[in-house]
């Protein structure tokens, strides 16, 4: 807006640069043209050409630029403040989720009661399966253990807690879980519980499971979704890995998450 | 019935792999692999045998499918 006020003045100073053809007309018209030029500039301005007074063009440009910069700076500051407020709200929401959501109340394979808060401060890799599983659960657990071992071998990385949660509480007792986990890794923790407790944790982590029909010796296979879940030290669900991901890919991903992690729990 | 231990699982998988290798060599002719079949059946729980048989069917179907043996019909005149 201010620029528009200034440019006509700049334009008028340039107007004497108009093609000389205008001034070739018979004397009277030349005078008329010159008068018109002069009158547009105004009486005070007529002297401006010979003796420039007040701020020059460059000064005016500098002032405009400074004013523009000031406006821009104010806008950026307001935007940064809004961004910060939004970030604070998000952190607060995450904090509530970390404490509240995805909680579980289960028994580990030594009979001790465990809930999600017990693992605060640790990275957790979690897998849902059952001990009577023909091939998928052993393969996935083997893969999970390989990931843990790869990360263990790297100095400076925090240890990852591997957890195996059963979706077959009917058969997977504490003793059954203890027998099962010992084959994989000394730190692999098996978790089981009542049917309601298993249903609760499966719901929290969106794990589908469905026991199939029993055959003559009462054996059955439990159909279930297959994924390895990564929980951050805040207890927040951070990532998941399907069958197609290799141990190396998962280890790389966990390492990236570790590097980027900022706690919301303080 | 307790779940199979790691050793028992590996014995079962070994027997399955032997049986499947025999089937591969004999173009799915089960009559040629009766001995391995009975070895397979004694190494694995019944549920697992049913599961692995279905798995075999699926893998064979997948092979054929990926080789392009199942094409959509050109016309719908018959339907």
TrEMBL record, chain A:
Pfam families associated with the record: SCO1-SenC
Compartments, as annotated in UniProt: Mitochondrion inner membrane
Cysteines paired by S-S bonds: 133-137
Alphabetical keyword list: Chaperone, Copper, Disulfide bond, Membrane, Metal-binding, Mitochondrion, Mitochondrion inner membrane
GO biological process: intracellular copper ion homeostasis; mitochondrial respiratory chain complex IV assembly
Ranges where the Thioredoxin domain occurs: 85-263
Membrane topology, record value: Single-pass membrane protein
InterPro entries: SCO1/SenC, Synth_of_cyt-c-oxidase_Sco1/2, Thioredoxin-like_sf, Thioredoxin_domain
Annotated Cu cation binding sites: 133, 137, 224
GO molecular-function term, one example from the UniProt record: copper chaperone activity
Cellular-component GO terms for this entry: mitochondrial inner membrane
Its biological purpose: Copper metallochaperone essential for the synthesis and maturation of cytochrome c oxidase subunit II (MT-CO2/COX2) by facilitating the incorporation of copper into the Cu(A) site of MT-CO2/COX2.
Assembly mode: Homodimer.
Family: Belongs to the SCO1/2 family.
Protein known as: Protein SCO2 homolog, mitochondrial
Automatic annotation (TrEMBL), chain B:
GO cellular component term, pick one: mitochondrial intermembrane space
GO biological process, one term: respiratory chain complex IV assembly
SUPFAM superfamilies linked: Cytochrome c oxidase subunit h (SSF47694)
Chief place where the protein resides: mitochondrion
Subcellular location: Mitochondrion intermembrane space
Domain of life, per lineage: Eukaryota
InterPro entries recorded: COA6, COX6B-like, CX6/COA6-like_sf
Pfam families recorded: COX6B
Keywords tagged on the record: Disulfide bond, Mitochondrion
Family: Belongs to the cytochrome c oxidase subunit 6B family.
Role of this protein: Involved in the maturation of the mitochondrial respiratory chain complex IV subunit MT-CO2/COX2. Thereby, may regulate early steps of complex IV assembly. Mitochondrial respiratory chain complex IV or cytochrome c oxidase is the component of the respiratory chain that catalyzes the transfer of electrons from intermembrane space cytochrome c to molecular oxygen in the matrix and as a consequence contributes to the proton gradient involved in mitochondrial ATP synthesis. May also be required for efficient formation of respiratory supercomplexes comprised of complexes III and IV.
The protein's name in its UniProt record: Cytochrome c oxidase assembly factor 6 homolog
Gene name as annotated: LOC110586026
């Amino acid at each position: 807006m201010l620029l528009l006020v200034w440019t006509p003045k700049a334009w008028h100073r340039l107007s004497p640069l108009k093609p000389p053809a205008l001034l070739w007309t018979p004397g009277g018209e030349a005078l008329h043209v010159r008068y018109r030029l002069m009158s547009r500039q105004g009486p005070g301005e007529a002297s401006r050409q010979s003796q420039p007074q007040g701020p020059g063009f460059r000064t005016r440009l500098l002032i405009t630029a400074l004013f523009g910069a000031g406006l821009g700076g104010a806008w950026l500051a307001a935007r940064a403040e809004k961004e910060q407020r939004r970030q604070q709200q998000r952190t607060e929401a995450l904090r509530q989720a970390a404490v509240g959501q995805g909680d579980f109340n289960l028994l580990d394979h030594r009979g001790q009661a465990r809930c999600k808060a017990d693992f605060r401060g640790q990275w957790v890799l979690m897998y849902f399966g059952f001990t009577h599983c023909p091939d998928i659960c052993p393969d996935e657990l083997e893969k999970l253990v390989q990931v843990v071992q790869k990360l263990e071998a790297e100095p400076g990385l925090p240890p990852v807690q591997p957890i195996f949660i059963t979706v077959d509480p009917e058969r997977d007792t504490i003793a059954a879980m203890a027998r099962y986990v010992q084959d994989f890794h000394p730190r692999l923790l098996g978790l089981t519980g009542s049917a309601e407790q298993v249903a609760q944790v499966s719901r929290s982590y969106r794990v589908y499971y469905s026991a199939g029909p029993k055959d003559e010796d009462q054996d059955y296979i439990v159909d279930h979704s297959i994924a390895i879940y990564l929980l951050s030290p805040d207890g927040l669900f951070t990532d998941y890995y399907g069958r197609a991901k290799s141990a190396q890919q998962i280890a790389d991903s966990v390492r990236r998450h570790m590097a980027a992690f900022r706690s919301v729990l303080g | 019935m307790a779940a199979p231990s790691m050793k028992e699982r590996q014995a079962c998988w070994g027997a399955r792999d032997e049986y499947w290798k025999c089937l591969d060599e004999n173009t799915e002719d089960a009559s040629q692999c009766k001995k391995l079949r009975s070895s397979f059946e004694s190494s694995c729980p019944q549920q697992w045998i049913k599961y692995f048989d279905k798995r075999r069917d699926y893998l064979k179907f997948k092979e054929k499918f990926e080789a392009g043996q199942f094409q959509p019909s050109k016309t719908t005149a018959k339907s």
